[in-house]
Amino acid sequence: MTAPRLRIAWLVVVLTVAIVGPPASASAPSRAFQSFNVPSSAGDLTEPAVAVDPRDPRRLAILATDYDGFVIGAAGEQVRLAPTCRLSESANLGRTWVSADFAGSHAPAVPYISSSNATLAVDSRGHMYAACLSNNSNAGGAVVFATGSVGTGLTRSQLLSTPGLGPLATSDKPWVTVTPDGSSVAVVWAEFISPSASQIVMRVSHDYGSTFDAPHLVSGVTVGSDRQVAPSSGLPCALFLPSGRLAVAWHTTLAGGEDVMAISVDASAVPPSTSIALREVARSGVQGRYPRHANQPSLALDPTGGAVLLAGGVQTPSGVRATLVRVDTSGRAGMPVVPVPVPVGFDQLNAAVGTTSRGSVGIVFQEVHSGRMDTFVALRGLKPRTWKTLQLSSRTTAVAPYTATSNGTPIGDFIMLVSAGTRFVCVFPQQQGSRMQLTGALVPVS
After folding, report:
1. Distance (Å, whole) CA 71 – CA 135
2. For residue 397, what are the domain limits?
């Protein structure tokens, strides 16, 4: 994507921040949360999706990209790393785990050799829904959807898209969301229509994920009331609203070169109406200077009602800032908020937002400065309505430009923050020796 213009066309409101200890950029790990281990791998683990069983918040599921294997050539040689989606489940808040490769990553009769970019959702019955991207030997990408239950794994899978011929991956970054009762399921993804242009499509099920409607175009050639052309759209996320409408947000580049976060609060409409939620957002890769930062938007229900919260990374002259904005049910965006101010030169990457039914809000992000990366979460309760910041990572990860640590292991560009009763759950990657492994945190909220 092209670099954003230097002018900043939005106003940032910096709320009073109650910092636990020193400022976020220099704080020591806080004891205000409980860390838990996630099963390690012989390869690197990145981009973890998390689901919590609402009937029993002790039951967790993690679906992550695991670089634990290789593509084997005709002569038996190792050709390249072949990631797969690995499912880990715990019935006791992360004390013990059962892990296995996600069998649905390799759909029957289709020669897929790798899988990645997984997302998870769970309904009120504890039924689990997953989507991931599987690639064939030509690097063509297909969206795989699967269902199961927390504790019994993902047992049924089906293809929602198929890869095109040649090296062009026709699908990318699938996202799954479900209504509380599980009756409606939606999967959205980016569909490449040329090497330099993509659009957002979705498929919806109204029978608990058994069958899906035909693909439906969400993003068009225009975004917002000013009808600006958006030739490239990608990195979607989706969320069912209490009304049953489906909200979809995505990162798009306008014809003039500006990157924005677009949103449709009723993506099933024909045609869907779109608006701009955040302007001047950081382009993917942060201009190639820091670890991979696709800058995928994140959505959560506003606990005060009547809206959604969107998190993303906004490019400022001082660096990328994890930013939160409220979008009402008509698609109108409020004033952006940066919960955690940091010094010039610090970047807050891969921001994700979560909320609890009691009204708490959290935003998790990876902070990068001078070749070092740590993971933080900012929390806000109803009383007082100020932010406090916790450092979640116990180890600082040394990072190299764009995609890897200093040891060449992948960073990934996706983390989640989900509610587990009175706590948030976050799983994030950090370097352990020469590998990238996962660590979990159970964070209490007021």
Report:
1. 12
2. 1-31+280-446
Beta strand 397-398 with 34-37: parallel, antiparallel or unpaired?
Answer: unpaired
Q: Please report whether residue 314 resides in a domain.
A: yes
Q: Summarize pLDDT for 404-443 with one digit per residue, the tens.
A: 666 666 677 889 999 987 889 999 999 888 788 999 999 9
- Does residue 320 fall inside a structural domain? yes
End-to-end CA distance of the chain: 39
Express each pLDDT in 236-268 by its tens digit.
999 999 999 999 999 988 877 888 999 999 988
Tokens of 177: 């969301």
Q: Is residue 257 part of a domain?
A: no
Which residues is 44 bridged to in the sheet?
Answer: 67
- Residues 194 and 36: their CA atoms lie apart, in Å, by 43
Secondary structure, 3-state, the chain: CCCCCCCCCCCCECCCEEECCCCHHHCCCCCCCEEEECCCCCCEEEEEEEEECCCCCCCEEEEEEEECCEEECCCCCEEEECCEEEEEEECCCCCCCEEEECHHHCCCCCCEEEEEEEEEEECCCCEEEEEEEEEECCCCEEEEEEEEECCCEEEEEEECCCCCCCCCCCEEEEEEEECCCCCCEEEEEEEEEECCEEEEEEEEECCCCCCCCCCEECCCCEECCCCEECCEEEEEEEEECCCCCEEEEEEEECCCCCEEEEEECCCCCCCCCCEEEECCECCHHHHHCCECCCCCCEEEECCCCCEEEEEEEEEECCEEEEEEEEEECCCCECCCECCCCCCCCCEEEEEEEEECCCCCEEEEEEEEECCEEEEEEEEECCCCCCEEEEECCCCCEEECCECEECCCCECCCCCEEEEECCEEEEEEEEEECCEEEEEEEEEECC
User: What letters, b where the CB count within 10 A reaches 16 and e where it falls short, cover 273-296?
Assistant: ebbbbbbbbbbbbbeeebbbbbbb
Instruction: Say whether pTM exceeds 0.85.
Output: yes
Give the total number of structural domains in the chain. 1
In-domain check, residue 149: no
